[in-house]
Amino acid sequence: MSAALPADAADDVEIAPLTEPADGVGRVVDTPAALERVVAAFAAGSGPVAADAERASGYRYGQATYLVQVRREGAGTALIDPVPLPDLSALNDAVGGTEWVLHAASQDLPGLAEHGLRPARIFDTELAARLLGMPRVGLAAVVADTLGLGLAKEHSAVDWSTRPLPEDWLRYAALDVEVLVEVRDVLAARLEEAGKAGWAAEEFEHVRTMPPPAPRVDPWRRTSGTHTLTGRRRLAVVRSLWEAREANARQRDVSPGRVLPDRAIIAAAKALPRTVPQLVALPEFATKGARRRAPAWQQAIDAALALDAADLPSTRGPRTDAPPPPRAWGDRDPVAARRLSAAREIVSQLSEELSVPAENLLQPDALRRVCWTPPEPAGPTEIAEFLRDRQAREWQIGLLAERLAQAFASV
């Protein structure tokens, strides 16, 4: 494989395409016997486990995993089909406390956990790249920067629920883990040199142990274009159509956007059709699928139109403890607005000095909250505890608590 590149030399090096896995593309592991052989091989292997997972986002309902790729020195690469093999915990047990290397681990860990794969330690190459201030942090860009190799990404958005999986898709999947451990080693050395290895360790552990997000309140409000509507009745139509679409998508295991696009829901909410012919006259309902299911969509619209006023959704959305939008702070709490301005300036300066994106120095929501309702008194210790309660890491607190306390005292 390619030698590691110095961080400042990547832009001057010709990128060599990475087109074939070193061990070739083996058969997909889809039987218990084949999985047993993989487990034995990985138990006998050495070093970290490189891992990736493929979903069928945009094609299937939910975020199920349809292919798991793992690679380890001495064991090679295994492409595992988790559909016939939903329990992969034997592989997890076989490698024990070994470090797993993933790129954008937060995307893959929940799906891997559903199949019994719960790493004891991780190294996230995307997070490492962010902490190092690399301008591009996609896997292909990071591979090019660290190893001078070109990694094709043309199959990143395909339907991974397809069976059998095409050979070129499998080659792409195998290459995603082919050099991941080598990338990890280069990034780890750079983190150490930059004095950020401890930061990275905290970030990786945070991602590894992060609980699944709580279900959203009123998820239908995220329908694209809802902000263009006026009146609670139209919002009720959006809610009713969204819920009908969700039920249909779940039943058919199809991405909701393929069942009925958001733009069609918004068009119906604006037009408020009273009959199926009126509904299918809308351009957004001209497709064969939308016309075929038009009676069900009209039924959902009719249900919203028949609601009593007391049952209509609020135009303000559900109440939360989140601060208001920052643009409103100047009128509602000028002192808080000044705190936010000062805090943002601190984060911006640190971001530039440390070559770390502002959002990685502190989660924006935590920054807004400490500015809107700071602890009383707002000293370094109190601010540190406030941020800690909102999942800030110790390295972030060490950088920001004292600075924020000083800034708040002067506004």
Any key phrases for this structure?
411 residues; Nucleotidyltransferase, domain 5; DNA polymerase, domain 1; 3 domains; 5-stranded mixed sheet; two-stranded parallel sheet
Describe this structure in words.
This protein is an alpha/beta fold and 411 residues long. The chain has three domains: 10-209, Nucleotidyltransferase, domain 5 (2-Layer Sandwich), CATH 3.30.420; 219-311, HRDC domain (DNA polymerase, domain 1, Orthogonal Bundle), CATH 1.10.150.80; 326-410, Orthogonal Bundle (DNA polymerase, domain 1), CATH 1.10.150.80. It has helices spanning 32-44, 89-95, 105-114, 125-131, 139-147, 167-178, 180-194, 197-209, 232-252, 256-259, 262-271, 276-280, 288-292, 294-305, 329-332, 334-354, 358-361, 364-372, 380-389, 394-410, and strands at residues 16-18, 46-55, 65-73, 76-80, 99-102, 121-124, 149-151. The strands form two sheets. A five-stranded mixed β-sheet has the order 4-3-2-5-6, sandwiched between helices. α9 runs antiparallel to α11 (262-271) and α19 (380-389) crosses α20. The protein is flat and about 65 Å long.
Overall, the morphology is flat
Total individual domains: 3
Task: Characterize the main sheet.
Answer: 5 strands, mixed
Sheet with the most strands: spatial strand order: 4-3-2-5-6
CATH topology of the largest domain: Nucleotidyltransferase, domain 5
Q: Helix and strand succession? A: EHEEEHEHEHHEHHHHHHHHHHHHHHH
Q: Roughly how many Å is the radius of gyration? A: 25 Å
Distance between the termini: 55 Å
- Seen as an oligomer or otherwise, the chain set is single chain
Q: Let me know the number of strands.
A: 7
Query: Percentage of helical residues?
Result: 40-55%
Number of helices: 20
Unreliable spans are none
What is the CATH architecture assignment of the largest domain?
Answer: 2-Layer Sandwich
